Amino acid sequence: MSKNAFNYSLDFEKVDFRKQPELYRVGVGEQGVLLVQPYKAEILPYWRFKTEAIAQESAEKIYALFEEYLQATDFVGADMARKFLQMGFTRARRYANHKSGKKYESGETEQNAGLAYPYSSGSKNKGNIVRTQEADALTSEKAKAAAVFKSYWFKAKDNPAYLKQKEEFKKLYYT
User: Fold this and answer.
1) Is 10 helix (H, G, I), strand (E, B) or coil?
2) Which domain of life is it from (predicted)?
3) CA-CA distance, 172 to 175, in Å (whole number)?
């Protein structure tokens, strides 16, 4: 495992990442968003995307937490808030694209399943038929909710204080 990779082998039931930030890895995208405590418990209750108005209220609250974590120089908390904003976008987009929330039709699994990359993406759905996108995928309430989260996610990921703390965190703990 690379020193930058998210470590899924940790005992997430026992690790308090506020007390042990050295165990945290940013990883890729939303990795660990529903595992890292106490941040999951602090942020998840505010994460909602059913409508544009609900998404606005949710994204504002999560962004406020993001700013609080930055102010406290709690990079792990700030990164987790950023991940929840990103996940708000990706989940709302999934439901905008496919009302069921399922992108793929049921079907056979990938012929190369279980083989190492680059022979397999690791996705059990690779090779299955992608469901047709909803006609209103770009204008629906979920699409509007996704747009709200996207704006806050980009505001967070490009925040100069966040970028500085991320760089300092990696210098300190990615040795």
Assistant:
1) coil
2) Bacteria
3) 7
d(CA 131, CA 113): 21
Query: Which of 73, 90, 76, 9 shows the shortest CA–CA distance to 40?
Result: 76
Structure-token pair, residue 162: 């966040």
pTM for the whole structure: 0.86
Q: What is the mean pLDDT of the chain?
A: 89
Q: Residue 120's pLDDT is what?
A: 46
159-162: list long-range contacts, CB under 8 Å, 24+ apart. 159/66, 159/70, 161/70, 162/66, 162/70, 162/78, 162/79, 162/82
**What pLDDT, on the 0 to 100 scale, is given for residue 103?**
82
Structure tokens at 139: 């204008």
Question: Does the pLDDT of residue 42 top 80, yes or no?
Answer: yes
Cis bond upstream, residue 45 (ω within 30): no
Average pLDDT rounded to a whole number, residues 114-133: 64
- Residue located via tokens 């106490």: 38
DSSP of 115-164: SPTTS--S-TTTTSPBPPPPTTTTTSHHHHHHHHHHHHHHHHHT-HHHHH
Q: Is the separation of the CB atoms in 52 and 148 below 8 Å? A: yes
